[in-house]
Design a protein that fits this description.
Blueprint lengths: L2 E3 L18 E3 L9 E3 L19 E3 L13 E3 L4 H6 L2 E8 L4 E11 L12 H9 L9
Antiparallel strand pairs: 1-4, 2-3, 5-7, 6-7
The structure holds iron/sulfur cluster (2 copies).
The site of one iron/sulfur cluster has 14 residues, from loops.
Length: 141
């Protein structure tokens, strides 16, 4: 198993420093990889990152909710095409980029309305893809 960062991530970088095996990597380019990503082959499932996340974006893989609902939660660039077509807000963040801070504009973010649900399980494959077909640890440099 592994831990998974979901589209609730806004890249503030709070989780990166606590990971004992340094397997949380900022996505790059942010338009294509808008979150932080956890290397599933390196994560030791210690759970240290979970309480560090102010946005409750991190879950053990088998606990990622299929019907997440929280009014006011911001979702970044969801893979669901129907959802993405409604996500029009941009959101500025100061993102941790390995050695320092980086100013990032997250496009396609949506603030969940009261009673609105989203399937965060759709966010599991990108965590794997980032390290298999994506930049992976190369995004650090
Ligand atoms: S569960 Fe532990 S090893 Fe895995 S990403 Fe979080 S802090 Fe790192
Ligand atoms: S602490 Fe949460 S919101 Fe911040 S970068 Fe990590 S997963 Fe994203």
């Amino acid at each position: 198993m592994t831990h998974i960062i979901t589209s609730l991530c806004v890249r503030d970088g709070a989780c990166i420093e606590v990971c004992p095996v340094e397997c949380i990597i900022p996505g790059k380019p942010a338009d294509e990889w808008p979150w932080m990503y956890i290397d599933p082959d390196t994560c030791i499932d210690c759970g240290a990152c979970i309480p560090e996340c102010p946005f409750e974006a991190i879950f053990p893989e088998d606990e990622v909710p299929g019907d997440y609902s929280k009014a006011g939660a911001r979702v970044s660039a969801p893979r669901d095409p129907n959802f993405a077509s409604r996500a029009t807000e941009e959101h500025e963040v100061e993102s941790e980029k390995g050695k320092g801070q980086e100013h990032i504009m997250l496009k396609q973010t949506l603030v969940l309305a009261e009673g609105e649900t989203i399937d965060l399980k759709a966010d599991i494959p990108p965590n794997y893809d980032f390290f298999k077909g994506g930049p992976g640890y190369g995004a650090k440099s």
